[in-house]
Specification:
Strand order of the largest sheet: 9-8-7-12-14-13-17-10-16
Order of helices and strands: EHEEEHEEEEEHEHEEEEEHHEE
Number of helices: 6
Oligomer: single chain
Number of domains: 2
Shape: globular
Largest sheet: 9 strands, mixed
């Protein structure tokens, strides 16, 4: 039987795209061709929480199936051969993609990638772009609802009096995300920055922007084996109270092409500061510059004491709410384990 004929995501008939590329990537990762055939259903789809509203489903906490817009489908069609070469020829922070397909029954385009941060609950989870779009996704196992200040929501722009508690909490999370720092040992930091530069150069070369660095953290008892598949890349550090802090990092959502529509959006958002909608080369440079500053070297093999976000130091008119009720350090100190980034 042809290998492709054994691929039936959720038992459905599908059309495959660039299967020569993705079959090789699956083989290299030790993932069988039928990895999506069971363990999930299209009824499991839920909103991913991003601005685009894409639907997604988790498969045994190891993989994520995500719906693609027509534009993102075309982007992945074009990118796949180069993406395959990029992944095969060096280490990368890009989230691993293993299948691109169309569900024949619903005519929807989808792709499957590894879940690069493992299963919730997290100590904290951040979606970071190095700009005003940075946000906190989860805190102490609780999802933070996104309440955006859209341009057509006039009341949102007229001061805090019209802000709901959910909006205030979301904003406080954005402030925390913007100020987060990660401490690595010098060699590990150098490796991370090199990977980030390699990946952002690759994405800029393909006219792509608006991607994020996903950072998630968990606490486990000191010395305990890290949860989730061994393929997950992580940094590990000694945390408080005899626990270890696990830090996962991955580049996600990298299929957005710089188009005329993006140029128009950039003009519409002229009143917004430090926005995400900028050209690919500028986006890559900003991402690299931001994380060169936010990922710092630990001193003499030991990190400074964790320090919470100092909300009192913020400009008063920018401070809409107090810190989130649960406290979390804005300095993460990590040491790479055997299954970490090279």
């Amino acid at each position: 039987m042809d290998a492709a004929s054994s691929i039936r995501p959720a038992g459905r008939t599908v059309e495959l795209f660039n299967e020569n590329v993705f079959s090789e990537l699956r083989s290299r990762a030790g993932i069988p061709d039928d990895f999506l055939n069971t363990g999930w259903d299209f009824a499991n789809f839920q909103h991913g929480g991003g601005k685009g509203g894409s639907m997604m489903a988790f498969v045994e906490d190891k993989f994520i199936v995500k719906e693609l817009s027509v534009g993102d489908h075309k982007s992945l069609l074009s990118l796949a051969p180069s993406y395959g070469d990029h992944v095969r020829t060096g280490d990368t922070l890009l989230s691993p993609i293993y299948l691109h397909f169309r569900d024949m029954a619903s005519d929807r385009y989808l792709f499957a990638m590894r879940n690069s941060i493992g299963k919730s609950p997290f100590k904290a989870c951040y979606d970071l772009k190095g700009c005003a779009d940075d946000k906190l996704i989860e805190k102490e196992g609780e999802r933070i609802k996104a309440v955006h200040k859209r341009i057509w929501k006039v009341g949102m722009w007229c001061g805090q009096v019209n802000w709901t508690d959910e909006r205030k909490r979301y904003h406080a999370g954005k402030v925390e995300a913007r100020r987060i720092q990660v401490e690595l040992q010098p060699q590990q930091r150098s490796s991370f920055i090199s990977l980030l530069k390699r990946d952002t150069d690759f994405l800029a070369g393909h006219n792509l922007m608006d991607y994020s660095l996903l950072i998630a953290t968990k606490e486990i008892p000191s010395g305990e084996e890290s949860p989730g598949p061994s393929a997950l890349k992580l940094y590990r550090c000694a945390g408080p109270n005899g626990k270890d802090l696990l830090v996962y990092m991955s580049l996600i959502d990298f299929l957005q092409v710089w188009t005329t529509g993006k140029r128009v959006a950039r003009c519409i958002k002229v009143c917004e500061c430090n926005k995400a909608t900028i050209p690919p080369k500028a986006y890559a440079n900003r991402m690299l510059t931001h994380f060169t500053h936010q990922v710092v070297e630990a001193q003499d093999g030991s990190a400074a004491d964790p320090e919470d976000v100092d909300f009192d130091s913020l400009v008063p008119e920018k401070l809409i709410s107090p810190p989130l009720p649960t406290h979390y350090s804005n300095t993460l100190t990590a040491s790479r384990t055997s299954d970490a980034l090279a």
